[in-house]
Structure formats: structure tokens, C-alpha cells
Amino acid sequence: MPILVRCWIIVLAAMLVTACGGADQESVPAAVPLLTLGHVGHDHQIALGVAALEPEKMRQQCGIHLQELKPREVYRMMEGERPIAELHVKKVGGGSKMPEAMSRGELDVGLGGIAAILFFIDKGTDMKLLCPLNVDGDMLLVQPEFPAATWEEFVAAAKVSPKPLRIGYKEPVAVAKLIFERACAAEGLRCVAAGQGKAGEVELVNLQGEANVVPSLASGAVEGAVVNEPGGSIAVYKKAARIVCQLSELPPEGMWKSHPCCGICATGTAIANHRAVLQRLVKLIRAATEVINADKERAAELAHQWTKQPLEVERSSVPNIVYTVDAGDAYRLGMERWFEMMRERDTFQGVLKELSNADAFARVHDLSFLRSVE
After folding, report:
1. Of the ranges 20-29, 87-96, 113-122, 172-181, which one carries the lowest mean pLDDT score?
2. Which of 51, 140, 176, 276 could form a disulfide linkage to 26, CB 3.0–4.6 angstroms apart?
3. Does residue 223 carry a pLDDT above 80?
């Protein structure tokens, strides 16, 4: 073979190796893709904020970082000095708003509540959970003067109340509401819809979003509320409520400990077309989660910068949340409990309704991205 031909073969081989970026990760296409990423905006998803606000630490931690183009809105995802994606970040609100936006094709990736994500997957939305973001972080609030400081005292007060207690929730498929209903059932405390209760019962009041929790407590429209952080810490900060207990402590005993709360999901189209980018996004979120757990005080400061909540709120809220991307046995058990409870309540009416727990878990997850970075 002529020397010149051999040289060209060597050069081409080197170019191919460089383009592939090694065998341990999928290669990113030459054209930098644009992905739209939605998030709820509170500190359950603060891993995104940490990744955005600590680019140099992320570069050192995992080799991936976000280059800010427009604060809290537009970022270039970088691997070393190489751009691999542009992310348009949108705050879409809590409850069902994030998965609903995904169902309309407005988002490629979403960070939000797992119960709402399951609801929309059941309805036929083409998306998968890539990994969890946190567990726990939900609580029962009562007005400051309410005569209960523990769950046991709350149940006792509710059962002897001469009128139904009104307990607010932010969304029909919110994690906190689902847990509270089951815990009340375990105590023999009946929950009914607003306006349908009688003495010794609890009326569940849809507050139509987290923004209405504090005004409803302050005005006396409800005696209490079940919320996720930072909603609880905000209500306490504004002197509208006291925290009675974390919902992870409620009965049936041990059932809600480490309950899955928020996760990352992606549309089927994004998974098919942008696997390499999603792999690196999961890697980045995993590194940011490690940073959060290494220094909760710093995490609270970053949460304050990202969410714009008062620093005192985030210093109270962040320690109440368990940040993790672990999808191991504890997570699987927690997801199976969600499946069972949502079936019992007839929340599932579509693709998940008749599936076994194992089949439902496989249907709603694509954990290959997480496994690739572990």
C-alpha cells in the first residue's frame, strides 16, 4: 500500500476516534441540538439550579457544565470546551402543569412531580422517567392557633371537631394529597370533597395552586394544608402556619418513608433523537445532587438565588428534602406503592390501569441513562 494512502487511513481513523469520544458514552451529533426543559421552579428540583449557578464546580465534578447565555432561561451545555446542546429553560409551575406542557409538545424534558407524570403517561403521553430527583419533602400545616402539635393530636382534634376540618391541597394528583388521604383512611378519619363533610370528618379543598396556600390559611378559608417544600417553610416564614409533621412519618407505618416525589422525564422523541445529550444531562444532574448533599448550607444559598425565595425559607426547606437520583430497591418499592394507590383511587384509566407493578415500572421508566453514568 502506498505511504500516502496509509497516512490518509491513519488520519481518518484518528478523526473517527475523536468524533466518537470514547466507548463509554454515546457520541453527540455534530449539529448542536436545542432542547426545551421545563421545571416547577421550587427547590425540589434545585439540582438544575446548582448546575446552572456552579459551572466551574460542575466542570470539575463531571466534565459537563452549563454556559449561561441568559440567566435562568438559556444555557449552552458544554463537555469540556465543546458545545453539545442548547437548553431553553422554562418555569412552568407545579402540579400537573409540567407534564401537561409535555403532552402538548411544548417541552422535551421536564423536572416535576412523579405522581402527575404517571397520570399523564397513563393518559397516553409519550414520555419516560429517566431518574428521580428527590424523595420526601412534604408536610402537614395547620393555622398557628390550631390545637395540635403532632399527627396523633391532629387526628384526635379532627375526630371531635363539631364541624368538618378543611384541609387544603394544591393539585388533585399532588403527592402530598395522595399521602394525606391514605393516612387519614388508616386512622379511620373520613375525607370528603369540599362542602360535603360533617362533624368529625375532613373536607379536602382544592386551593388551585401553591400560591393560594398562605392566603387560604391566613384568611381562615382552611384550617390546614398538605404541601411540599418550600411551601411549608414559606407559610411558617409568613407566620400563616405551623408544621405539624412530615408526611413521610404518617401511617401506615413505614409506608411513606423515602416516598418518590420528583423526577426527570423526557419525551419519546427526545429519547429517540437526543440520547447522548440526555445522558450527559443526567450525568450533570447527578453531579449537582452530590454537591447539594455535600453542603446543605451552600445548597440553601444556591436555592435562594435560583428560586428567589428568602434565604431563611431555603435554609428551613432544603434540609427537609432528600436529594437523590438513586433508582434502586427503595425507589422501586416506592413507585410500586404509587401504582397501587393510584389504581385504588381509579386515577389510572389508561395504559397503566391493567399492568402489573413490574410492567408498569418498565412502561414509565428508561433508566439506561442513569445506568450509563453510575
Report:
1. 20-29
2. 276
3. yes
Same domain, 280 and 365: yes
Range of the domain at 147: 138-249
Q: Check: CB of residue 231 under 8 Å from CB of residue 210.
A: yes
Residue 232 has pLDDT above 80, yes or no: yes
- CB atoms inside a 10 Å sphere around CB 55: 16
What confidence tens digit (pLDDT) does each residue in 140-171 have?
A: 999 999 999 999 999 999 999 999 999 999 98
- Is a pLDDT exceeding 70 seen at residue 275? yes
- Measure CA 353 to chain center: 23
- Residue among 194, 176, 309 nearest 243 (CA): 176
Distance between CA atoms of residues 290 and 288, nearest Å? 5
Q: Give a yes or no: residue 5 inside a domain.
A: no
Q: Is residue 265 domain-shared with residue 125, that is, in the same domain?
A: yes
Domain count, the chain: 2
Tell me the angle at which helices 46-53 and 275-294 cross, rounded to the nearest 10 degrees: 90
pLDDT attached to residue 18: 38
Q: Tell me what pLDDT residue 344 has.
A: 87
- Are 315 and 369 members of one domain? yes
- Give the CATH number, domain containing residue 34: 3.40.190.10
Q: Note whether 205 and 166 are within 8 A (CB).
A: yes
Mean pLDDT across the stretch 133-141? 96
Residues 124 and 201 in one domain: no
Strand partners, 35: 87
Average pLDDT on 194-212 reads 95
* Within a domain: 18: no
The SS3 of residue 151 is helix
357 φ, ψ (degrees, to nearest 5): -60, -45
239 and 152 in a common domain: yes
In a domain, 13, yes or no: no
The runs of H, that is alpha helices, within the chain are: 3-20, 46-53, 55-62, 97-103, 114-122, 151-160, 175-186, 213-219, 231-237, 268-273, 275-294, 296-307, 311-317, 329-344, 357-364, 368-373
Helices and strands in the chain, H and E counts: 16, 14
Residue 3 has pLDDT above 60, yes or no: no
